[in-house]
Amino acid sequence: MIRVEHLKEIERVLELINEQTYDSEIGRYRSSFLYRGMQNESYYLTTSLHLNCKEKHRELEKSILRNFTKYAAGEEPLLDESVWRQLIIGQHHGLPTRLQDWTYSPLIGLHFATSGERLANMEKHGGILWKIDVHEMNRLLPKRYQESLREEKTNLFTVEMLNELAPDLETYDEDMQNDSLVLLEPPSIDQRIINQYSYFAIIPSGMGDIEQFLAEKTAGTVKYIIDRSLRWKIRDMLDRMNINERLIYPGLDGLSAWLKRHYYVKDM
Question: Is the pLDDT of residue 25 over 90?
Fold first, then answer.
């Protein structure tokens, strides 16, 4: 089931930012949620591979990864050792892949729901913040994947764990079918991944509709629709928290994007 909630008051946004559960075993507060921000409420959950290659995404995926690995060998010589590393590096540099970006931080999720588009359109439509429960997603996994998580005492997979469980995409797709997916913690290959608190959902090729999967298989998924009247207020609040392009994209590109938006003059 997907619960849909319309966010119209900043107070409700602050509540979800502070959403945590007390863990009596460690005496600390923790969250089991991951978030994904989308800048337009009309957008549907999908992957860049599917958007780019449409109905041919399955047959073209291997060609994309093979050529990426071949031509990127000079900069990333270890790519041919792991398909999971190929996907991560490729996604990080804009390659169409089956990976879907998520973050542990609701603030980062809200950033992506309120940035990255023409600023004149900010008040023309709402944005989206998706929330999924990691524990719930893991309970859907095949038994040997769950056992691997228990053995490693973790809730998220690494490249090394996946290399052992599914060394190729065919094995992964056969294991997952349309019933489950893996949540992957990427290696900290650069500051951008670190700052974005990034995680990836690895979408099986047989999962034709991600939102249908979430609706049928989960109970804790939430789709927050951010009212268009609230988007600038959230955007300016995030800037005060230092959640902006300068942090998300370290370097001159991020700095320039932040300054461009900071000095944007709205039509009144």
Answer: no
